[in-house]
Design brief:
The structure is a homodimer of 504-residue chains. Chain A is mostly helical. Chain A has 21 helices and three strands. Chain A has a three-stranded mixed β-sheet, sandwiched between helices. In chain A, strand 2 and strand 3 form a beta hairpin. The longest helix of chain A has 29 residues. The termini of chain A are far apart. The interface between A and B is medium-sized, with 35 and 35 residues.
């Protein structure tokens, strides 16, 4: 191995150990930490972030990367390691792209805007919000241009350079093309689903479900889904999340005493995220090449576990035994009762409460706005009108000027996290596509799901996604796994099958 | 403020943030982490330790310390900050004293010896142990000499240089003088206590005490003792411990379903440690001057909470209400029943199970041996004979060659942690002395303890110990608080009062 590669691996190993610290300090903060621990914890996380930045932008890094490129050309690094070096370079470029003043200005403006938003949202105060938000948009554009200028060969638009941080490899053009297929079908499909469901009378599943029993049920579900409790934990937090390192995956969920379905669905979702992370190539865990591909793939794993698997009619059979065991008061509910209640569709204002059919419409609305905003095609002040127009055409709704259920509902934009939203729906698209390929190979999937035998799903995902880390670009990965890059047709087919034919 | 001091404070602040990370990663490892997290966690902790070492031994550190000394002399640093600079220098010296090869050799030899000990202990295999342990002793002596050579003005003996790591400021000569007072009294006192207690018939307190209820009881006790749950937590671990940072103190205890007294006593003990840490000067928390004085003072705080306060007859009254509330099956036990059962004295082989009267004898035995060993007055091979002789003269016992209950019982020496044992008994000595001074000032202490009103204890300890951090040397601290340096007479008086007169 060349000395340059050794140096790079050593440096990335050190960075990974700081990331290990940040990961578990952040988990502790969300799950365990008492309130008064906030200030010392924030100071520690800030200092560790600054040490990480120093390591990543150390002057020698550029030299090592150039040397490694030469070593590759000379053959003193095996050609198979080319992507290893390439992913290190991209990670390094992402860290170098932002001038320190811009980072600083972004933190200040983002904190101010987010802080204000916490009250402005409830008061539907768009004008007040806009004052702070203009600066966030200006800095977001500046960031996008700086990132684009640093690697112009990789980005056609400024927005592409922000997408790169979350959806690496999936360009604005690609996402727009997938979304336009969806847009052509979804509004009409939605109408048909609403007509179809008008004839259903879903059962009321609410009751009294002790948290302790729900927790045991969530753990049962995780075990059925292949989660290894010797290498991970389930805890409770305000918002469900998944984090950890190889060997120690931590997921959280949240419980309500009156409802069991939401916590269980969140558990299935986070188990999908955790399974992907736990299945990444162990020996590469310190390096960019060994990490998850991007959020469009990550979300596809959580949505495959949640929507394709857990919410299927077949798996609904398998969950009945643990459900009745841990929550005896559900004894009168059939699998059908639960499935019907969990698959109700209704256009609504709030993205995070949206069902599987309307969710993509919420995301596409945001994608249209934020890409135009970053590329300079619209201004921040234009957002409410653009929101209202799309909301009406996609979902047939109007906020009637109540921005708290409109453009002020999400936290993402307040601190300048543009380019994240598309991953939710790209994840749903990829999940449906992967699931379709899996079912083509395993035609007995329904019997297996119904029996709670999902080892073959994990095996297929491991072979096709997990073990590859960042070895392939996202579209290459999808093509290898399914025969084609991301296309919307499988999600549309899935929604028709589930919501019109009820046969998934 | 001078630039040198600014640089030093910045560097120590960064080090403190790495320590924050190690602290909570170690807590997580003991309390939360699943088994498979071990390897990645070990790698992260090792890398953070190495980053810490790099910061501490950075070439500029020596220059900054020299500049700061000059700035002090010139008056560009306020004289009040002299000890701030002095404690930074000592911490730095401690890090610089060990050549890297010696650190490495010590880790290897210590790991090997400790690993072997885990089976050799059970098999009483002294010969097998000795093979590995000889190397640990040789390296311990090398370390002691290296540390002594680096600051000869501070250390009269090589053992002093190891004591410095745990008992800073309390020399071998001082400890030997305190211990010789104890030795002169304790064996005879022990005989009298045994005769006295021969007439008591303690009640059997064993029963079925659900863990959940014991936990609520421990939390009640902590609240009575002034623990702030907004700035800390209680959890469970294999061995009780206390850790954390200012604002976030984490203590642990362990429960047995058949007994409630041990867990409760451990909780009182760890609450003492945590209270000291939580009471250190907030604005100095990143610097050596702001940390706890030494383990002889630290242990005095835990033992003051556990032995002087919690185990007093008076406080025994206060605990009855929460005890009966959380463990209704204790309703038939009186405060006297519990006090008598918890203060039984019996010479035994195992230090960690020893009572308050015999515990110091176990410690003095180890102090005699380890100081002679490090100073080269005896060899490792001489330990079993020396152990047997002291055990007989102090406690009237013989191991009859069973080293598992003799010199192989403790983990401390296996990886070369010489100089720690004395802090247990110096802590008991200091606790009794501080408690005596506190009671002189607050003659109504018995009524207050009985009412569970211990705010005045915390206030007194804060004024006299906690808020001073490392502003004073340990003996100066004791003198300011009690009028004299550490002396054994208060512990002896306390033991007589409690175990002969039953009036504490």
């Amino acid at each position: 191995m060349s000395q340059s590669l050794k140096n790079l691996e050593r440096q990335f190993h050190r960075i990974a150990q700081l990331d290990h610290a940040s990961t578990f300090l952040a988990w502790d903060q969300a799950v365990m930490m008492p309130d008064a621990g906030m200030n010392p914890r924030a100071a520690a996380l800030a200092e560790i972030a600054s040490m990480r930045h120093e390591l990543m932008t150390a002057p020698a890094m550029g030299d090592w990367l150039n040397d490694a490129a030469e070593d590759l050309a000379k053959g003193s690094i095996a050609p198979a390691l080319a992507n290893h070096v390439k992913e290190m370079r991209i990670t390094w470029q992402q860290s170098m792209a932002m001038p320190a003043e811009l980072v600083h200005a972004k933190v200040i403006a983002g904190s101010r805007c987010e802080h204000g938003w916490r009250t402005q949202k409830g008061e539907s105060d768009w004008k007040g919000f806009l004052k702070n938000f203009k600066e966030v948009v200006a800095l977001g554009r500046e960031e996008a241009l700086a990132r684009q200028a640093q690697a112009p060969e990789r980005f056609d638009t400024p927005y592409d350079a922000l997408l790169d941080l979350h959806c690496a490899g999936d360009s604005q053009a690609l996402i727009a093309s997938v979304f336009s297929e969806l847009k052509a079908e979804l509004p009409d499909l939605l109408k048909r689903v609403l007509e179809h469901q008008a004839h259903q009378t879903p059962k009321d599943l609410s009751g009294h479900y002790p948290i302790k029993n729900q927790q045991a049920l969530s753990e049962s579900l995780m075990s059925m889904l292949g989660f290894d409790f010797n290498a991970g934990r389930l805890d409770v937090s305000m918002h469900p999340f998944s984090t950890g390192v190889l060997g120690d995956q931590r997921i959280t969920t949240r419980y309500r005493e009156t409802d069991f379905a939401d916590a269980l669905q969140a558990t299935a979702h986070e188990t999908g995220h955790a399974s992907y992370e736990a299945g990444l190539p162990r020996e590469l865990s310190s390096y960019p090449i060994g990490s998850s591909r991007n959020m469009c793939i990550h979300e596809s794993q959580s949505l495959l576990f949640e929507k394709q698997l857990f919410l299927s009619r077949a798996f609904g059979q398998a969950i009945m035994e643990p459900l009745h065991k841990h929550l005896p008061s559900t004894a009168s509910f059939t699998a059908d009762d639960i499935w019907v209640a969990q698959t109700r569709v209704k256009p609504s204002f709030i993205r995070v409460e949206a069902d599987e059919v309307t969710y993509p419409l919420h995301v596409m609305l945001r994608f249209d706005i934020e890409s135009a905003l970053i590329n300079g095609d619209i201004e921040a002040a234009d957002i409410p009108d653009a929101w209202e127009a799309s909301l009406n055409s996609y979902l047939g709704l109007s906020t009637n000027g109540d921005h708290s259920i409109g453009c002020l509902q999400d936290i993402h934009w307040t601190d300048g996290a543009f380019g994240y939203f598309p991953s939710y729906t790209m994840g749903a698209v990829n999940a449906a596509q992967l699931s379709a390929a899996l079912k083509r190979e395993h035609t007995d999937w329904q019997d297996r799901y119904a029996a709670g035998d999902i080892g073959f799903v994990r095996e297929w995902l491991s072979d096709n996604i997990w073990q590859h880390g960042c070895e392939f670009e996202s579209q290459e990965l999808m093509k290898n796994a399914t025969g084609e890059g991301s296309v919307a047709s499988h999600l549309i087919e899935h929604l028709k099958t589930r919501y019109l034919h009820e046969t998934d």
